[in-house]
Amino acid sequence: MDISPIINGFGVVLEPDNLLYCLVGVIIGMLIGVLPGLGPGATIAILLPLTYGVGPVPAIIMLAGIFYGAQYGGTITSVLLRLPGEASSVVTVFDGFALAKQGRAGTALGIAAIGSFIGGTVSILGLTLLAPIVAGFALDFGPPEYAALGVLGVLLISSVGNGHKLKAIIAACVGLLLATVGRDTFTGAERFTFDSLNLAEGIDFVPLAMGLFGLSEILYNIEERHNQVHSPAKVGNVWPSRKDLGRSKGAIGRGSLIGFFLGVLPGGGATLSSLAAYAFEKRRAKQPERFGRGAVEGVAAPETANNAAATSSFIPLLTLGIPANATMALIFGALLIQGIQPGPQLVAQHPDVFWGVINSMYIGNILLLIMSIPMVGVFVRILRVRPAILAPITVLITLLGAYTVNNQVYDIFLVIAFGLLGYLMKKLGFEPGPLVLAFVLGSMIENSSRQSLLIFGGDPTGFFTRPISGTVLALVLLVAVLPLIRKALRRRRPAEEPAGRADEPVEENTP
Amino acid sequence: MSMSDPARSPEPLDDVAAEAERLQAELDESRPPHAGPLSQVAAALAGLAAGIFGAVGSYALGLGSLTQPGPGLWPFAISVVIVALSAALVVTGRLLEDAERFSKASLLTLVALVTLVLLAVLLPLIGFEIPSLLLVFVWLRWLGKESWRSSIVISVCTVAAFYVIFVLLLQVPLPRLI
C-alpha cells in the first residue's frame, strides 16, 4: 500500500485553515450535542450554505467534525440530565444517569470520553486501511451496479431507521419523485416544472435539506411543553480511577470493534451498535445485575461503539458513494455542491479530500478528548441555556443563510415550504431522513438504470444476471423480506409463552 | 463467552432495545398525545394524492419503452409505487399510534410560519434588520414565553450580532436598511 497520499493528507489537515475548520466543527458539534433541541443532522443542514464560501476540504472537515463531535456532546446530556440527544446515546442513560445519581457523573463522562476517543481512533485506523481496498474493488462497477447499490441504500435507510417502514418507503419514493423535477438529462424534456424558470433547473439540494432537516425540527420543537427544569448533577472528578479504567478496558475494546463493523452497514449503524455493545457487555458480565445501576462498562461500551460507528459510516460514502445515514446524505450533498462525486474514484481523483477528511478525524478526536475531559465544565455550564432563546437565532441563521446561496428570496420560500412539509411529516409519523437521502441518490439511480437499460438493450433481467448487481439486488430482496420473516417469528412466539408480547403492536419497529 | 445461557433472557439485544424504547417513550411525554385514525388516513391519502398527481403528470410526459425510455417512465414507475404503498397504508395504517395530534400548541407553529413568510416577503423591500428584529422578538416573547425585558435585549443583540458578522465581517450582500 502506498502511504504517501496518507502522509500528504496530514499535510492537508495541518494547514492552518483546515485545522481551524476542524476546531470550529468539533466545537459546534460538541455544543449542539449538549444543547437540547437541535441534532447534528439539523445543524449540518443549516450550515450547508457555508460550504459555498470555503473549499471542499475545509467544508467537509468541518461538517464531519460536527457529526462526530455531537456524539461526544450527547453523552453529557445523557449522563447529567437523563436526556439523550441522539438515539445512539439512549443506552448510555441506563448506567450513566445511575452513576450521576451516585455522585460519580465525572467518572461516567471521563470513561465515555476515553472510550469515544479510542473507539473513534480505532475506527479511523480501520477506515484508513479498509476504505482504499473497498474503493479499489468498486472501481469496475458499471451503471447496473450503481443502480442496484442506490436502491439498496434507499431501502436500507428506510427499513432500518426509526418509524414505520411503509411510511419510510413512501417518503423515500416522494424523494425520488422530487429528484426528477427539472430538465431530463437524456431527452431534455422539462418535468414537473409548471413553466417556472426556477424549477427548470431542478430543486436545489441545499434549501430542501435546510427545510426538511433544519427548519422542520425547529418548528416541531416549538410545540414541546417547556416544563423541564434543567439542574445538571455535579460533575466532580472527571479522571477515571485505575479501577474504573480496568473495568472498562474490555468494554472499550469490544465496543470499538462492534461499532466499527455495524457502522459500516447502511442505515443507523450508530444506534444499533450502541445497543449491541451494551447487550454484549451485559451478557458476558460476571454480575449482569450491576448493569442499569451504575456500571462503568455500561457507559463505556455504548459510547465507544457509537463513536466508532459514526466514523466507520463514512466508509460506504467515501468508497461507494452510498450515504449510510441521513447525516451522510448531507455530506454527500455538500460534496456534490463542490463538484465532487463521492464514489470509488474519489481516492484517486481527489486524494486531498479523501485523506484530508479521514486524517482530520484523528486531530478532531484529540481536540474532542481535550474538550471532554479538562474542559468539560465549560460545556456543562452551557446546559443552562434555554432552548427558547436558541430557536429564533437558529431560524434566522437558516433563513438568511438560505438567501446567501444564490441571493434569491425564492430559496427562502423553498426552505419554508420544505420546513412545513417536514413538520407535517414528523407530526404524522413520517421521517424526513429517507426522503432527503432518496432525493440525493435519485438522479444517480435514474441515470444509471437508464444507462443500464441501454447496455442491456432494454432487457431488465440484465440487472440480475450480472454477478455484482445481481448479488446487490438479492440483498435488496432480503432487506425487503426480512422484516416479514421477523414478524412471522414474533407471531409464533406468543403462542409459546402465553403472557408474552402478544399485546405488542407487531408493526412497530424494534431496531 | 457464554453465548447460550438459558437462565438469562433469550434475546438480550431485543431486551435492551425494548428498554431503550421505553425510555424514549417516557422522554416523549412532553410531546402532544398521539392522533387518531383520521389523521393517519388523511396522511395516507395525501401520499396517494401525490402518487396519482405524479403518475398523471409523468404519463403526459410520455413513457416510451424499456429500450427507449421516455422522460416520464421513471417518475411514472415511482408514482405507481407511491400509489400502491399509500393505498396499503390507508388500509393497514389506520390504528398506528405514531402521529401526533394537532393541538393548541400547533397554533404556535402557525404563528412561527407566518413570521417566516413575513420575513421572506419584507426582506427585499426593507432590508433584513427590521424583519429579523420582529421575528426574533415574536419568537422569544410569545413562542418562547421569555420576559419582555429579555426578549427586547436578546432580539436587539441578535440582530446587531448578525449585522456585524454577515455585513461587516463576511460582507454578504444581504438587502439592508442601513
UniProtKB/TrEMBL annotation, chain A:
<feature type="transmembrane region" description="Helical">
    <location>
        <begin position="317"/>
        <end position="340"/>
    </location>
</feature>
<feature type="transmembrane region" description="Helical">
    <location>
        <begin position="18"/>
        <end position="38"/>
    </location>
</feature>
<feature type="domain" description="DUF112">
    <location>
        <begin position="19"/>
        <end position="437"/>
    </location>
</feature>
<feature type="transmembrane region" description="Helical">
    <location>
        <begin position="360"/>
        <end position="380"/>
    </location>
</feature>
<dbReference type="InterPro" id="IPR002823">
    <property type="entry name" value="DUF112_TM"/>
</dbReference>
<feature type="transmembrane region" description="Helical">
    <location>
        <begin position="468"/>
        <end position="485"/>
    </location>
</feature>
<dbReference type="Pfam" id="PF01970">
    <property type="entry name" value="TctA"/>
</dbReference>
<feature type="transmembrane region" description="Helical">
    <location>
        <begin position="257"/>
        <end position="280"/>
    </location>
</feature>
<keyword id="KW-1133">Transmembrane helix</keyword>
<keyword id="KW-0472">Membrane</keyword>
<feature type="transmembrane region" description="Helical">
    <location>
        <begin position="145"/>
        <end position="161"/>
    </location>
</feature>
<keyword id="KW-0812">Transmembrane</keyword>
<feature type="transmembrane region" description="Helical">
    <location>
        <begin position="112"/>
        <end position="139"/>
    </location>
</feature>
<feature type="transmembrane region" description="Helical">
    <location>
        <begin position="45"/>
        <end position="68"/>
    </location>
</feature>
<feature type="transmembrane region" description="Helical">
    <location>
        <begin position="168"/>
        <end position="186"/>
    </location>
</feature>
<protein>
    <submittedName>
        <fullName>Tripartite tricarboxylate transporter permease</fullName>
    </submittedName>
</protein>
UniProtKB/TrEMBL annotation, chain B:
<keyword id="KW-0812">Transmembrane</keyword>
<keyword id="KW-0472">Membrane</keyword>
<dbReference type="Pfam" id="PF07331">
    <property type="entry name" value="TctB"/>
</dbReference>
<feature type="transmembrane region" description="Helical">
    <location>
        <begin position="107"/>
        <end position="140"/>
    </location>
</feature>
<protein>
    <submittedName>
        <fullName>Tripartite tricarboxylate transporter TctB family protein</fullName>
    </submittedName>
</protein>
<dbReference type="InterPro" id="IPR009936">
    <property type="entry name" value="DUF1468"/>
</dbReference>
<feature type="domain" description="DUF1468">
    <location>
        <begin position="42"/>
        <end position="175"/>
    </location>
</feature>
<feature type="transmembrane region" description="Helical">
    <location>
        <begin position="41"/>
        <end position="61"/>
    </location>
</feature>
<feature type="transmembrane region" description="Helical">
    <location>
        <begin position="73"/>
        <end position="95"/>
    </location>
</feature>
<keyword id="KW-1133">Transmembrane helix</keyword>
<feature type="region of interest" description="Disordered">
    <location>
        <begin position="1"/>
        <end position="34"/>
    </location>
</feature>
<feature type="compositionally biased region" description="Basic and acidic residues">
    <location>
        <begin position="19"/>
        <end position="32"/>
    </location>
</feature>
<feature type="transmembrane region" description="Helical">
    <location>
        <begin position="152"/>
        <end position="172"/>
    </location>
</feature>
